[in-house]
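Re: export button greyed out
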Amino acid sequence: MKAKINRRKLLRTFKEVAAIYGPGKRERDVADYISSRLERLWPVSEDGAGDAIDGDAGNLLVQIEGEGEPVLFVAHMDTVEPCAGVKTKVEDGYVMSGGDTILGADDRAAVAALVELAEAAARMRARRPLELLFTVAEEIGLLGAKHADYAAVTGKMAFVFDASEPPGFAVVAAPGSELVTATFHGRAAHAGIEPEKGINAIKMAASAVATMRLGRIDHETTGNVGLISGGRATNIIPERAEIKGEVRSHDPSKLAAHVAHINEEIKKAAAESGGDAEISWTQAYVSYRLDEDAPPVALFRRAARAAGLEPKFVAGGGGSDANVLNARGIPSIVIGCGMENPHTTDERIAAASLEKLAELATALATTA
Amino acid sequence: MNFSKPVYIAAFAAACCFLTACGPDTGGAGAPITGTRIWVADQPDSKVAIYDEGGSLLKLVGRFGMFNKPNSIDVYEYDGAAWVCDFYTNRIRKFSAGGNPLYATPGQEGGFLVRNPVALSVSQSSGECWVSDRGNHRVLRLGAEGGVLARVTGFRYPRGISADPAAGDVWVADEGNDAVVKIAGTASGDVPVAAVEVGRFTGMENPWAVAADADGKGWACSREAGRVVKLSPQAAELASVGGFANPVALAVDEPAGAVYVVDAEKGLLAALRRNVTGTHKDYGAVATFVVRNLAKPEDVFADENAGRIYVAEMGAGNVRVYDRDGELINTLGGFSGPGALAAWDGD
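Workaround output, generated via the alternate export path:
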């Protein structure tokens, strides 16, 4: 006997969970929904991540006993804004929002699939032990995964249900990322009376940005400055300006090299202007790359075929909870969920993708 | 509230024999409790409390932290003793009619007899308690005074359980095996289910709740199939009633000739005729009444002596009390999320 996911129920669950307001650090209602569905079936616990990040909920861990090596399935509970009052509709086989909000398929489609998986798990034969980790604050810096209580996790490999590719795809490599904040310090002066006395911090920042190599650096490295601010008034030479940017690379040595390059350009621009600059780097996440025979890759290959999908492996360009898990020594890949136009009000997901995602989750749970 | 009548009865006095601490059967104020007691498990708050018919709190049962998501309650009509099933503390606890602790299965220090239990049912013929020990894939028969009389193994994630009020046989929803199994109430010792099986029904996916008739028949519902089946004493299908979306609890009311079903998704309470036969796609054709617009009802209990039907309306934080015509008699409010209940009329 092999329990099947109930399509009607899956769609209903997705609509219910998509309608719950829950941006990063405000996932309480999502967590309560999941708990109410699962806590009478399997042990559900909540860790202290909420307190650690000043959110209103922690990560939820659902532990489902089984036979063999435990695996970890991960989905994040938060969505990006605008996510208040999401109203779903189904047209031409797609689930979409009313157009004034995101849909939240990223990552509520995965949440729905895993809730349905848990409800059907008792009736699945030869099922391995499962741990479902529903994380908080993924969209605002992977904060839930970073603060999760891993002492409670026993899974030896993880599948993070969070890629926008269609079901059947898996992201087996992702870049690491470093975030930079540079604050340029010049000298204020009246712009019309004595500009000679001033050192323009905005000009300093602009010089630095102008000489930085940004955009696509090579096939696996990118750089960007995304925010700039400074100044107080048009008649004051700005004494302070700030830029924020990032570097990503699949290759840690290239990541380090480009970080050094950006440091150098900032310092050079400051020195040439007679000012100075403070530079602060924060590691957003660490890169990973799994071999084709790594346990989660091998299991995914078998499970995808069992679910009637041709497995495809790609390298991703963004970070996810898998970066954190891999850095913690839990080999992890990211599963394609089939959400289209994520993070926009045009976001949608095919009902067929939702079903396939649930079937794939079942196959990952039961395929030898 | 009337605190004037003493509640001691012979059976309760006898039960005290094995207690370590058993004082007078009183409420929080120290006076004996009389009249109808409604036991409610408020799940989000992980507390169990006793209320009177008017909704006044008679007693908060147990000490702080005793419960963690209590999920099933049943009472022994003879003396009003209540058994409570608690999922996260892995304990089964028995209380007197007044809410004083009588017995608990071993906790961590004793190695936990049960693991993630999900349902229990008191045999009205013996006072014994049958437990769906889901995490251990077995069903337990606990003596009225607390010993383990039988461990029936071979289930796979058992869910609902209901003891036949007359013969004492027991119906079990064996969720992981997609089966509804009837076992002999005389099971004893460590015994595989096949050795005590009276009947097995495998015609319905994902059986969830069960209820036993006094004449040996059984009722079961399926969340997956959205239907309720009536089974012969040998577990053959006698009737099937569909049209439900998520039926989660059943209760038999012999005097009324009804079986009550609550559907958490459709938000309804339906009173099905007990004598129904055949297949019905929609419950409306075989229901004497249907109450709608309930918010996520999770449990139903029929007090056959008092003619009252109690519904735990988890989504609204209410306990609804109906008569046998489906007329609302009272609403007890202020709960966080009542998920299980039972009642005893006390007289």
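Residues 36-344 of chain B form a domain with the Neuraminidase fold (CATH 2.120.10.30). The button fix ships in the next patch.
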